[in-house]
């Protein structure tokens, strides 16, 4: 029985060594993604970067990674997970070197784009490999371990980012990636022994959905570009914002139609969206990405600008979130593995996330230390619980033969949300800051210009005399503007909570089916042989008894 297959899962030492090598890569990727936040104001100041370029430092990384995810996931179906993972590490390493040696902000953006391609591909490969190697019932636990690895990078990232920025220079945020990538590359090469994918190289290249990649990349880029500069560089009503957004949405619709009718091996298998659980889970995953990255990107600015913390101390201040995210994810994974139900976790997680952002709305310049620490606990737990619980929603709604495609779409949906979160959060912050500053007669004539430099404004504030009237007004306006950002995120999380009520009570017990499973015995050369029997189960015919 499928349930027995999951119960009998017993990973050995070689499997755990391989899984640990994947966790190393997750740490590196998360380290880089979060270390940039505390350094952005200094980088913008030293390299002469504008607010638009500062926002793009984060957005370009996420955009490139988002575009790469489905492409690398599709290529791994034909050319193997291990090969694509090693290539991904190469991209990330090269991007790190390019960024570390940058003398102008344009080169930073180029390096971040290369890094993002590698980082997005790494996260996709890790997600798919967990799906390949671990039975469904136990995947939440391993997704929790993955989240713990991400949390290590997320927690250490701001500390290193702030520490390097305040001492030896922000360049070391990127130099430190190189030896870690080498370690991860060697570990993957040695320990990740998978069944090989048969077939000729030319045949695989010909079968791959290259037109689908192009049809996805162009409109997705246009859409994300429009929301990135909308309200910042150009007004939302301007043609520069409207045209790429409309063309992007139309192009994405064309991509969906193409995927449904043309390729024999599509980049995206649309059958993974065949029931309401899949739809609300992918929607929830996108919202999860939006609120998570908006929080991690803009909360450090509250500490640096409003509470006058250094970049290093602001990294310490976000520890309540970064330490509780893996805890929430692991607890959910363990409990779902034990109880066999997951809907309760999704609902509890969204409730905590809504409450958490509602509490963040209360942050002000005079908020006491113990108050902001306690406030930060709630969104950290909620966001952490969503990592594992939403993974169950997407994977139980797909057949086992489509599990890798579902895993790719899951990580893509979250990355899409992350790209939107950084851009949308910046747009909301700038618009509100201009409005708040204009309310002060002394600043009204400079409100628009000050708001355009919302991210690099930290350095300007620190140059003002402590206690000066101008400094007090700007700090107050900034705190109120961030409150609107948190209120908007609370509203989005609330909408996702309502949508999640449509989640069906699908079973987490079924047999595993994969052609690229872990090769426990080096003498076992049978292609496609895995550690559990291959058996496909119709989704929805067997449901769990609870929620």
UniProtKB/TrEMBL annotation:
UniProt biased composition (Basic and acidic residues): 512-528
Region entry Disordered, spans: 512-547
Keywords, ordered alphabetically: Membrane, Transmembrane, Transmembrane helix
Topology in membrane: Multi-pass membrane protein
One Pfam family from the record: MFS_1
PROSITE patterns in the record: MFS (PS50850)
A GO molecular-function descriptor: transmembrane transporter activity
GO cellular component terms, A-Z: plasma membrane
Localization of this protein: Membrane
UniProt xrefs under InterPro entries: MFS, MFS_dom, MFS_trans_sf
Protein name: Major facilitator superfamily (MFS) profile domain-containing protein
Source organism phylogeny: Eukaryota, Fungi, Dikarya, Ascomycota, Pezizomycotina
């Amino acid at each position: 029985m499928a349930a027995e297959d999951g119960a009998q899962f017993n990973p050995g030492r070689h499997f755990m060594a391989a899984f640990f090598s994947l966790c190393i890569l997750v740490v590196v990727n998360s380290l880089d993604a979060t270390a940039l936040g505390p350094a952005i104001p200094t980088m913008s100041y030293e390299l002469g970067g504008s607010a638009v370029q500062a926002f793009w430092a984060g957005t370009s990384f996420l955009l490139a990674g988002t575009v790469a995810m489905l492409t690398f996931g599709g290529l791994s179906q034909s050319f193997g997970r291990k090969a694509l993972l090693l290539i991904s590490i190469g991209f990330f390493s090269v991007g790190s070197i390019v960024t570390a040696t940058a003398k102008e902000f344009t080169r930073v953006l180029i390096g971040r784009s290369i890094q993002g391609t590698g980082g997005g591909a790494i996260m996709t490969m890790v997600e798919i490999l967990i799906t390949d190697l671990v039975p469904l019932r136990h995947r939440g636990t391993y997704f929790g371990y993955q989240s713990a690895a991400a949390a290590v990078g997320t927690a250490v990232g701001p500390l290193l980012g702030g520490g390097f920025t305040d001492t030896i220079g922000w360049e070391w945020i990127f130099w430190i990636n190189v030896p870690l990538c080498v370690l991860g590359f060697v570990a993957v090469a040695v320990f990740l022994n998978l069944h090989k994918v048969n077939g000729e190289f030319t045949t695989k290249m010909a079968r791959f959905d290259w037109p689908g990649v192009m049809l996805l990349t162009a409109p997705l880029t246009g859409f994300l570009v429009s929301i990135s500069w909308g309200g910042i560089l150009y007004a939302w009503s301007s043609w520069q914002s409207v045209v790429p957004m409309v063309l992007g949405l139309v192009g994405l619709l064309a991509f969906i139609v193409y995927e449904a009718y043309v390729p024999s091996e599509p980049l995206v298998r649309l059958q993974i969206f065949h029931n309401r659980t899949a739809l609300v889970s992918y929607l929830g995953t996108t919202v999860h990405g939006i609120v998570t990255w908006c929080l991690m990107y803009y909360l450090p600015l509250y500490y640096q600008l409003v509470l006058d913390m250094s970049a290093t101390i602001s990294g310490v201040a976000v520890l309540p979130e970064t330490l509780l995210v893996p805890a929430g994810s692991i607890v959910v994974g363990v409990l779902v593995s034990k109880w066999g139900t997951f809907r309760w976790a999704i609902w509890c997680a969204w409730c905590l996330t809504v409450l958490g952002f509602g509490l963040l709305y209360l942050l002000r310049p005079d908020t006491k230390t113990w108050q902001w620490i306690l406030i930060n606990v709630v969104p950290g737990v909620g966001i952490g619980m969503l990592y594992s619980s939403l993974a169950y929603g997407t994977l139980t709604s797909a057949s086992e033969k489509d599990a890798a495609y579902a895993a790719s779409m899951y990580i893509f949906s979250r990355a899409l949300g992350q790209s939107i979160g950084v851009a949308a959060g910046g747009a909301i912050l700038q618009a509100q800051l201009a409005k708040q500053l204009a309310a002060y007669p002394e600043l009204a004539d400079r409100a628009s210009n000050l708001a355009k430099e919302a991210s690099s404004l930290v350095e300007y504030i620190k140059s003002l005399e402590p206690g000066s009237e101008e400094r007090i007004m700007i700090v107050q306006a900034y705190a109120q503007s961030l409150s609107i950002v948190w209120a908007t995120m609370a509203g989005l999380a609330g909408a996702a909570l309502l949508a999640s009520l449509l989640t069906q009570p699908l079973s987490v017990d079924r047999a595993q089916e994969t052609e690229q499973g872990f090769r426990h015995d080096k003498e076992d050369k049978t292609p496609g042989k895995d550690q559990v029997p291959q058996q496909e189960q119709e989704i929805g015919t067997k449901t769990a008894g609870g929620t």
